[in-house]
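Example record used in the benchmark description.
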Amino acid sequence: MHPNGAFVEGWALYTESLGRDLGLYTDPYHQLGALGMEIHRAIRLVVDAGLHTGKMNREEAIKYNMQYEPISKELATAEIERYMAWPGQALSYKIGQLKILELRDKYKKQLGDKFSVRDFHDTILKGGAMPLTVFEDYMDDWAKNVK
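Model output (structure tokens):
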């Protein structure tokens, strides 16, 4: 796992959510695909937490995955075994995505008309991967210098 997985995978998950804002969904089926991936991510959060808190065993996690997603038993088993071997991975990237969304909303309010989502994204990418606490300080510095 990347030492800053919450940031790296959080950024990836965040960018997946930009399709609507960028006008990439030209028909309802595109949006349906994006919603299907959100369901997939939600299932991952449940089984990751369930498995690693002892509230769910392997078989229950496989059953849960198959109950809420159209997935074969073989693929569900592979997914669940991956989560078993990588505790907190699904949780970490969701936390990263939520931090980026939180900061974007914060700076939109704070900066008003001076906020540029393009500059926000450029600043994130220029900084590279970092722990989320460092990332927030880095972005706060950026916002202080927006003119």
